[in-house]
Structures are given as structure tokens and as C-alpha cells.
Amino acid sequence: MNWFRFGNPxxxxxxxxxxxxxxxxxxxxxxxxxxxMLLFQSNVNPTxxxxxxxxxxxxxxxxxxxxxxxxxPQWGGKPETVTERLDIMLALDxxxxxxxxxxxxxxxxxxxxxVIFSLLExxxxxxxxxxxxxEASIVVYPLASDASTLREFLAAMTPETLxxxxxxxxxxxxxxxxxxxxxxxxxxxxxxxxxxVLILFTDGEDFGTDAMEAAKAAKREGVHIYCxxxxxxxxxxxxxxxxxxxxxxxxxxxxxxxxxxxxxxLREIAKAGNGNYYHAxxxxxxxxxDLARLEKQKFRVHADGEYQERFQWFVGLVLIFLIGELxxxxxxxxxxxx
Length: 338
Description:
This protein is of the alpha/beta class. Helices cover 44% and strands 18% of the residues.
């Protein structure tokens, strides 16, 4: 019976062993009481014995249901429900250019992380994954509904951990697509008609050549690409090294390497990926509005393995039987006094 089980079946020992012993003791007690009464009178009032039998039956039932309650009966799984959600892969640029500061503001990496944290708060109920990318890309947190662990991964990314000098946005898109496809094949309780989202948090510096083709491939797979630009395109700035005392990044000729936000590149990628471009300074209000317009994936929540506790019912019956037994005892005592 898949719909019924005991949480602590080992306690059924008290039922299989204790109940027969209790029945024998009650029957023996009734017989002894009847024989004792016959020593003082020629016959026994049937009503008197009937009350004793009822009391014995109530006591026996109380023991029965106590044993069942201790065994923790469970049944009636929660009904299947259907929820809607988006699958969103957050891709964070971790190249060294993200260490730069623009207009004396915070580092691009810090700014991007703050935006992601805000986004997570406003999109509760959706599934999120986290991808880091530079010259290579890696999914550090798979798609899941628990955003708290994702936040921990994100908080652990500090400037001291950045050692990647170049960026390949196209590779990040390809890795995200592969992850979406893999996740789709693993799920059996979802409607694949829902749309998926990849959000790139980057300054737009791209040393690869395949970003546009990757964005078009993502569109064919039903993945929308949104780009959040971090930094400023007004004035190129130097890139501080992870260890600030070491100065700024320089090329092989000793010249300072400058970096600026490539907003136009990100607009092109977003357009090819059937998405939009936003600047991090503008916040995420418009981004969340655009995401709300997307068709969400329908997800069936099964009740497999989820049983509801029912021991309370048996405890309630025990109380009723004990109260009944007590009332019969008091009524019998009053009749004897009268």
C-alpha cells in the first residue's frame, strides 16, 4: 500500500504481542470476578457483568490505539500541485577587468554582486543557477530553488580570487545552453514549453569571436539572453591588480591596460539572444518587469514520499475510550451507593 505506512513500525511489537496478552488477562479477570461473586450469591446480575465487559473492551481498545499511535501511522499524501517558474542562469564575469572602478565608484565586481543579490530578493520562487566566466566558464551552482546556497557562493567570490585576464562571452553562453539542455533531459515532471533566461553581468570586454553565433543558438533553444552592463563607457580606466599594493595591470611593453564598458557589444548580444540590455546603475526594475512577461515553465510538484501524520486521530480515540470507561466506573459506583 503506497498510500499508507508507519513511521515507527518497530513499535507494532506492542500491538502483536501485548494485545493478545491483554485480552487474555481481561478475560481471566472477568472470570475470576464472576467466580468471586458466586461465592456470596446464587447468581450474578447480567447487567453488572455487562458493564465490566464494556469497561474491559474500552480499555482494550485504548491499548490498541495507543500502540498504533506510537507506531506513527501516516497516509494521505499531499495532492499534486502545479507551479510556474523561470529557470534563470546568472553569469558573472570574473575577469580582472571587473576589478576596475569607474568614476571613483566601487569595483565592478562588487557592483555586479550587489545587483545580483537584489535580483534574487525580487524573483523568489524561480530557479537560479550561477556561472562564472572569463576565458573559460564553469557552472558553480546548478539550477535550484534554494537561493541561499547560491548567495554563499556569490559572497565567496572576492577580488583576491580573480586571476583570469581575458573574457570569452560566447563560451559562457554555450556552457549555459548545455546546462539548460542537460537539466531539461533530467526533469520528468515539468512542461518544457516554458522559457529560460541567461543574464550576463559583465563590462562587455570580449576577446572571443563567437558571442553572436552563440546568442543566436541560444535563441533557437528558447533561451533569452539579458545583459547587465557594469562600468562606464565614458572614460577608460586602469585595472588594479588583485593585490592592490602591486599597482595596475600592464601589457608586455609596460603600458597601462585600460578598460571601459562596451555597452554596444552587449546590446548586440542581447538583441541576437532575444533579450535586452540594461546598465547596472539603473537598477533592476525594468529587468524584473521584462522577466515577468516571459512564459513561465509549468512544474508539477509530486507528493511522492510525502505522507501526513495521522497519529493524532488515534490519540483522540484513546481519550474518548478512557473518558467513557471512567464515566461507566463512576456511574456504577453511584448505582452501588443508591
